[in-house]
Amino acid sequence: MFRLLHLDGRTALQSGDHWHDLAAVAGDETLASPMAAIARFDELHAWQAATAGRVADGLVADATLLPVVPTPSKVFAIGLNYRSHAAESAMELPPAPLTFTKFPSCLVGPHDDIELSGPMVDWEVELVVVIGRGGRHIAEADAWSHVAGLTLGQDISDRAVQLTGKPPQFSLGKSFDTYGPIGPALVSVDQFPDPDDIELWCDIDSERVQHATTADLIFPVAHLVSYLSSICTLEPGDIIFTGTPDGVGMASGRFLQEGEVVRSGAAVIGELANRCVKVGG
Ligand code: ZN
To answer: Is the pTM of this model over 0.85?
Structure first.
């Protein structure tokens, strides 16, 4: 098991309330880069074990957490991957994963601000899969062995931009700077009692707006990895936003307001808390 963080510009392993500098634990300075660490995810288990009995480098609560996957080559995102969300969107169930991209420059840390781009900005809590071992034509039965771990994300969306024109184009409306909070940690798959049944939720301030389990995914994680790898070569550090359940703002006409805090959570992984701010204000 391991719990990987990206804090103060370096990779760290979390142990309880504390963190250990990964490069120091492993004696390899190249591991200061989270992308290098993710590509060696098989070895992270042993380095995590090596933190036992070592003096920690600091308290997680005192650190600035950055996006745990800062520079992936690809950020896939899946639309309408829960029946409940397809129903509230009045859309048919998709015959294959409806895939778009969020450009990597939208990624921010678990406590960073969301810079509102207009009056129709919406929330979407999602399980995020992080590829550790790349490949092409990965069989569904082998797919989990290519996953470094899981984290949590918000697929923040400017609905006005997303739904302009016919057909709509999702990628830019979901790629404004700050529209991809992820974290707080990259958690190894072996820590989940069932990695295909993970509870996740989203609160706006203290009001619960989304609550579901990934057991309800139309296309589960192994299928997504296999399907995407049939088209693109997957590389270590590539990430997949797996889709959001029902309870997004657009269904009720409510959108994010300046000052509101989007609180997203998932079992085992932890929580994101992102405050909404006005751009330039
Ligand atoms: Zn989404």
So the answer is: yes
Nearest in space to 180 (alpha carbons), one of 126, 133, 135, 235: 126
Cβ(258)–Cβ(95) under 8 Å? Answer: no
pLDDT grade for 280, boundaries at 50, 70 and 90:
low
Centre of ligand 1 from the C-alpha of residue 205, in Å: 20
Residues whose Cβ atom is located within 5 A of ion ligand 1 = 124, 155, 244
Q: Is residue 99 located within the same domain as residue 166? A: yes
Cβ–Cβ under 8 Å, residues 161 and 171: no
32 pLDDT band, cuts 50/70/90, is very high
Q: 254 C-alpha to center of ligand 1: Å?
A: 17
Single-letter code of the amino acid located at 17:
D
* Together in a domain, 45 and 157: no
User: What's the CATH number where 214 sits?
Assistant: 3.90.850.10
Ligand 1 centroid, distance to 28 Cα (angstroms): 37
Kindly state the average pLDDT of the residues 17-39.
98
Q: Is 77:155 a contact under the CB 8 Å cutoff?
A: yes
Mean pLDDT of 122-139: 98
Total structural domains in the chain?
A: 2
Domain containing 27 equals 3-62
Residues 186 and 79 in one domain: yes
Residue 4 reports pLDDT greater than 90: yes
